[in-house]
Every structure is written in C-alpha cells, then in structure tokens.
C-alpha cells in the first residue's frame, strides 16, 4: 500500500528508537514527577505535535533544505541548544518550592498545562537532528517507484508518532506513579531537581557542539 514495505520492521524499529533517552523523555519524567501524569501527558502531546511538524516538513521537502544548508542547520541547532540550556538554568534557579521548608519532600513549582505543552513542542521542534532523522530513516521503508511518496512518508510518520505517544504516556504514568510511591527527603529532592537542570544544560551544550 502506497509503496510502503517492511511495515512490521518499521514499527519495531520506531518503537525502539522512541525508547532511547533524550530531552523529550527527560521533560516528560520531570513534569510527571512534579505535577502528576496529566502534566506528563500534556508534555507528551506537545512533543507529538513537534514530531508531526518534522514529519510534514520532511514530506514537503523543507527538511531536505535544512540538511543542504549548513548555515540554516547551525542557526536552528543553536536556537534549540539555547532553549535546552534555558530550561536547565530555569530548573537550577527554581530549586526547592516554598513548601519545602515545611514538608519532608521537595517539588518544582507547578506550571500551566499551556506552558508545559509549549515546552514539549519547542523541545522537539527546535532539535534539527529530528528532522534529519526522518529524512534518513523513513525513506528506507518506501519503494523508490511509489507514486505517492509524500503521502507514504506522512503515513509512516504518523505510525512512528503513534508509537512515540504510547511510549511517552507509559513513561508519564510510570514517573508519576514512582513519584507518589517514593517521597524523597527535601535535600535529596532538591539535588535531583538540580541534576535534572544540569542534564538539560548538558544536552543543550552537546547539541550546540555536535
């Protein structure tokens, strides 16, 4: 159908690739652990929207332009890196919530679902490596003689995104459940928040220097 082949292999490969840790997974765990599974789910939906942006861009040839222009790739890469560093520094500055002094555990300040959604969207959209990934991975499962290559690309992209949403929501529920069951002392929770912030900063610097 539509020139798509080895669909089962694509689904399995896509699921395994979605399970690889990165900024998206870190953001979901962070929001689920601090505000519950609904916040993690909203972050996942933002990430899924960002994935569809990359899928449509690749299907329309915009990602090919990105891969062909070193200057454009560098600009978008640096913007994405700066955003990850910004998220990390925000976590480092937030530290403990005001309730930390009276409660045995520490949590991050709650964010609106709209802001969490935008965080998920921007974390994904501003990562140019995702665009190049789709250009390199998806065409392997489309027949070169297929009459509707763009449509086949979009269909495979939707399947990949569905796999990703299943994994991201499983991650959100797991992180929220673990957060409810394990109440960390304030000092430990504070250092975990700082560790998460440091990881975001490190991911941003890694993206900028690659």
From TrEMBL:
Transmembrane spans: 6-30, 42-66, 72-92, 150-178
Keyword annotations of the record: Cell membrane, Membrane, Transmembrane, Transmembrane helix
Membrane topology, from the record: Multi-pass membrane protein
Superkingdom of the source species: Bacteria
Record has Membrane as a keyword: yes
Localization in the cell: Cell membrane
Descriptive protein name: LysE family translocator
Species assigned in the record: Aeromonas eucrenophila
